[in-house]
Amino acid sequence: MPGPLFAVAAYFGAASAPAGVSLLWAVIALLAIFLPGLLLSLVGLSLWSRFARAPTALAMLAGINAAVVGLLAAALYNPIALTAIHGAFDAGVALTGFGLLHWRRVPPILVAALCIAASLVAQRLA
Asked: Is residue 5, in this structure, part of any structural domain at all?
């Protein structure tokens, strides 16, 4: 089941069922949670082809995209960068990790392991 919301829906469906029909009620609860999103995606796909051709819609989507990038940059700076980067070494590790991910295409799990190793080495030396 994809995610805790669906698991909880199935559990509540089974838990609230009368004796002997808990599987049926769990399936009904899962369908009740899946169905609205499924129907919206089916309707949305048919409407998207018309929506994507309108120049004003494309301009709106470009503006929304820019706003999302701005929000992500603000979220990266305020809670993350301010609390995680304490000096030049931390900034160097972060920039090196970004460079490895972006330009060298190193797998993210390896970059995370290298950053953790650099942090542990820096703590031992300090």
From this structure: yes
What per-residue string of b and e applies to 37-67 under the rule 16 or more CB within 10 Å gives b?
A: eeeeeeeeeeeeeeeeeeeeeeeeeeeeeee
Q: Token match 């994507």: residue? A: 52
Backbone angles phi, psi at 57, to 5 degrees: -65, -40
32 part of a folded domain: yes
Domain presence at residue 65: no
Q: What is the distance between the alpha carbons of residues 92 and 119, in angstroms, rounded to a whole number? A: 11
Is the pTM above the cut of 0.90? no
Q: Give the domain extent around 26.
A: 1-53
The residue assigned the tokens 């819609």 is 57
CA–CA distance, 8 with 11 (Å, rounded to integer): 5
- Expressed in angstroms, the distance from the first to the final Cα of the chain is 46
Tens-digit pLDDT profile for residues 59-99: 998 999 999 999 999 998 988 888 888 889 999 999 999 99
